[in-house]
Amino acid sequence: MKIAYQKLFERIEIFSDAITQTFNIAGTLLIVFVMVIVNIDVIGRELFLVPVAGVPMMVSMSIVAIVFLQTPQTFKQGRLTQNSAILDTIGKKSPAARLGIELIFSTAAFYLILQIFLATFPLFKKAWVRNTYEGTIGDFTAPIWPIKFIILLGCALLLIQIFLFFMKKVLVFLHKEGTKNEPI
Hints:
- The chain is 83% helix and 4% strand.
- It is mainly alpha-helical.
- The protein has a two-stranded antiparallel sheet.
- Helix 1 (2-48) packs antiparallel against helix 2 (55-76) and helix 4 (95-130) packs antiparallel against helix 5.
């Protein structure tokens, strides 16, 4: 029974990691796109006195998308801001205390991202139904629902990564505690 749960957990983790990595790549491609359009805009302004319409708006919308596309992978790789020196010191003295801190962190992070998801969903729904856009008619306009959708997907993936992190920490701790209590 324990092996079945482990295999299910591993499959969920592999599937989630593949999607998270795909989002990360999409975020990287979006960074390249932003760099290209900014350079084209600058060259167009300087050499031909013709700026590219909508570049500032595309850049501002892209930054939001990039953050939500890449944050799940950043979390997965353990690259979000944390003080590893303090956690390592605490972990050497008391692995249970470190686990407690990591579980509190995971719970708080899960709650925060869930709140962002719940706050964004009605905004996405409204933008989708009303076909809301940013920009100036006749110059450059872009719908805002794709950005809201990316925020929702990024939050959902991050929630999955946080949950997997939480469960992995609990399972590792329970496994270590179980082996300590077994007779030699």
